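Blinded run. Sample ID left blank on purpose so nobody reads anything into the name before looking at the predicted structure. Input follows.
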Amino acid sequence: MEAYLVAVGVIALIYMLLAIGLNLQYGYTALVNFGHVAFFAIGAYTSALLSLNGWSLAITFIVAMLLAALVAYPIGLLSLRLSDDYLAVVTLGFSETVRLVLQQEEWLTRGVQGLPGIPRLFQSLGVGQYAEIATFATLIVCNAIAIGLITHLVRSPYGRLIQAVRDDEIAVETLGKDPARLKVQVFMLGAALAGLAGAFYAHVITYISPEQFLPLVTFYVWIAVIIGGPGRTSGAVIGSLILLVFLEGSRFARDLIPGVSEVQMASVRLMLVGLALILFTIYRPQGIMGRRKL
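Blinded prediction complete.
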C-alpha cells in the first residue's frame, strides 16, 4: 500500500509541475495553450534518448527544459498574431504534429514500439527500494522551487506587468511596454516546466511511446488548473492533487458499480472527472483557491 501511495504521489507531483507551467501561461498571462503535452513529450524523449546514450541524468534534465523552451519560442511568436481561440487550435495542432513526428521518425524514437529501458532515477546510486521515495522527495523539492520562483515572479514588477497584459494589453502598450516580448517569455517558461515534468515522467515510467502523449493529458492539466483556480499558483497545486484523487479514486468505483467491465470503467472515470469539472464550472467558476467576484 505504501508503494502504491508513493507511486500515485509521484504522478501527482509530475502533474503539478505541468499545472504550474500552464497556470503561468493562462492564469497570469491569458495564453490559451491546448498543446501543453507537446512540451511534456519533448522533455520526456529528450531526456530518455540522451540518457540511453550515456549522458548524465542531471544534464539530460537541463537539456530537456532548454529544448522545450526553445521549441516554444516560435509558438510563442504565433501568440502575438492570434486571438485566444485561434491560438488554442494552433497549439492543439502542434501537439498532434509532435506526436506524429515521434511516431513516424523510427530512426530516432523507435516509433510506436517506444523507448524501453530508460534509466530509473537514482538507480546508479544503489538505493534499491528507496529509489521511488528518493524520486518523490526530489519532485517535492522541484515543485517547491517552482512554486517559490513563480510566486516571487508574479509578485515582482515583472509579474504585475504580465498580469496587466492579461487584463488589458492595449493599456500596457500605452505605457510604453512590450506585451509581445512578455508573452513569448512566459510561454517559454511554462514550456520549460512541462519539459522538466516530461523528463521526470520518462525516468519514472522507464518506457515511453507516442501514445502516452495524447491531447487528453493537456486537458487533464487544464482540469487541474480550472478546479484549483486560474491565476493562483496554490490553485494549480490543489487542483493537481484533486485531479489525481478523482483519477485514482474512480478506479475503485468499479466495486460500487455492478456489471461494469475494465474497459467500460475507463469511460466511467472520464465521466466522473467531466462531471466534477461541470459542477465546479457552475458552482465555483473561480476555482477552489480563486476569489469570488462580487
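Unblinding after everyone has recorded impressions. The first helix runs from residue 2 to 26.
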